[in-house]
């Protein structure tokens, strides 16, 4: 369960600096976006630690929570791009790296939800 919490902290930790510096001159949107990411991240940690959601029955729910946390950067990204322009978003805002990060998070959530590689090699990846 701690691995899920670590993933949630990783996602939060990768969004917070980008949000803070991208909206440095816009304190109200910065506060709103940082609050949303932190609330979603803490929610993901709670879901990860809650026994009820630790069962295989709730695997899709856990994946959805993490997918939602990962997708929480879409609105701030669009906001920054519209407010500052595409050129500034791709240069100053480092949007290319941000999109790469989003693709990797979504891919990871998809692999987890599809149970890859465990689906193809049952028991081969069990550590304990």
Automatic annotation (TrEMBL):
The keyword Aminoacyl-tRNA synthetase does not apply. It is a multi-pass membrane protein. GO terms for molecular function: signaling receptor activity. The chain crosses the membrane at residues 7-24, 30-51, 63-83, 95-114. Keywords: Membrane, Transmembrane, Transmembrane helix. GO terms for biological process: adiponectin-activated signaling pathway. One of its GO terms (cellular component) is plasma membrane. It is found in: Membrane. The keyword Repressor does not apply. Signal peptide: none annotated. InterPro entries: AdipoR/HlyIII-related (IPR004254). Belongs to the ADIPOR family. PANTHER family: ADIPONECTIN RECEPTOR PROTEIN 1 (PTHR20855:SF40), ADIPOR/PROGESTIN RECEPTOR-RELATED (PTHR20855). This is PAQR1 protein. The gene is Adipor1.
């Amino acid at each position: 369960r701690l691995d899920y919490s670590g993933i949630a902290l990783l996602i939060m930790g990768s969004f917070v600096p980008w949000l803070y510096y991208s909206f440095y001159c816009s304190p109200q949107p910065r506060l709103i976006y940082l609050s949303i990411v932190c609330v979603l991240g803490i929610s993901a940690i709670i879901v990860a630690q809650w026994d009820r959601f630790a069962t295989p029955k709730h695997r899709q729910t856990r994946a959805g929570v993490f997918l939602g946390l990962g997708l929480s950067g879409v609105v701030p990204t669009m906001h920054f791009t519209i407010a500052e322009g595409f050129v500034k978003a791709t240069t100053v805002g480092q949007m290319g790296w941000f999109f790469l990060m989003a693709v990797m998070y979504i891919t990871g959530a998809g692999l987890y939800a599809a149970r890859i590689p465990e689906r193809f090699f049952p028991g081969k990846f069990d550590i304990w």
